[in-house]
Amino acid sequence: MKARNFLIGFTLFQVLFGSSRLWSQPDEESRKGSEASSPGRPIRQAGFSTGGLKNQWSAWSGISFDSPAGTFIGVTEDREFFVAAVQYGHTIAANRKVVLEYTVDLIPLAIVTKNPKLDSVPSRVSGSDRESFYVGTLSSVYGFGVSPIGFKIYFLQDRHARLFFAASGGFLTFEEKVPHPDARKFNFTFDFGAGIQILARSNWGLTLGYKLHHLSNANTANANPGLDANILYLGISSFR
Fold first, then answer.
1. Which of 151, 195, 145 is nearest to 170 (CA)?
2. Count of CB atoms within 10 A of residue 230's CB?
3. What dihedral angle (degrees, nearest 10) is formed by the CA atoms of 3, 7, 8, 14?
4. Does 179 sit behind a cis peptide bond, omega within 30 degrees of 0 on the bond before it?
5. Quick one: which of 216, 211, 213, 240 has its CA closest to 229?
6. Which of 7, 36, 112, 180 lies most in the core, judged by the most C-beta atoms within 10 Å?
7. CA-to-CA distance for 212 and 151, rounded, in angstroms?
8. Based on C-alpha coordinates, what's the Rg of the chain?
9. How far apart are CA 139 and CA 119, in angstroms?
């Protein structure tokens, strides 16, 4: 009788103990089978190389210390440009080597420095003579905008870092006409560049990049000198 009670108790102990282990430590093959049974769902691992990072939210800011007049499209000289933005990125195609991402940038702050003021130019002065009145009447002009069309191509990626090319287009509107008093407050923009993104934690990353940024009114005003900027920027990203 005692032996039978001991055997029953031992069997119950084994069942309960074994069940607790099954719940706390799922079988590896079952886990793999569960993931494999979800078609279209990427297997998420800690790192860039799986292509499983579908959504990316970023905050970034950059500065250009000069405007390279004549080296690209714009002819405006001696301007500084600062920009701060929030970016959303969605992966539209990926494998273990290359990722294509669509991006949208919301730009709450853009600053063009050393911008001539319109109210400093007498109305009786016109043509090329207006330029002589701009010297010494410069100010910083604030603006905002959006770049709704953008793409990034990530490549040469491993689990901890990846390089990328990026390009985007949109518009900025300013409180005064930029980069010239005969231009417009509303300007179209486009940029392209490259950089590196480093995985700081499993779902956080740091980005360091460069972009050539162009701003102009597309010949919708009396003057369209255009403004180019060599922007160096730093960003932080959250992956979902």
1. 145
2. 19
3. 160
4. yes
5. 213
6. 112
7. 15
8. 28
9. 12
Q: Taking Cα atoms as reference points, which of 214, 221, 217 lies closest to residue 74?
A: 214
Name the burial class of residue 152, with classes exposed (0-12), middle (13-18) and buried (19+) by CB atoms within 10 angstroms of its CB: buried
Encode the chain (240 residues) as per-residue pLDDT tens digits.
444 444 444 444 443 333 333 333 344 444 444 444 444 444 344 467 655 568 999 999 999 998 988 778 889 988 999 999 999 999 999 888 899 999 999 999 999 999 987 555 555 545 555 554 544 578 899 999 999 999 999 998 888 899 999 999 999 999 999 998 889 999 999 999 999 999 888 789 999 999 999 999 999 998 999 999 999 999 999 998
Long-range CB pairs of 37-41, under 8 A, 24+ apart, other chains included: none
Q: What is the pTM of this model?
A: 0.73
CB atoms within 10 A of CB 111: 16
Tell me the C-alpha distance between 38 and 61, whole Å. Answer: 39
Residue 56 pairs in a beta bridge with 89, 239
Q: How many CA atoms lie within 13 A of 97 on its CB side?
A: 0
In degrees, rounded to 5, the angle at the alpha carbon of residue 45 between the alpha carbons of residues 195 and 163 is: 10
Structure tokens given for 100:
């294509």
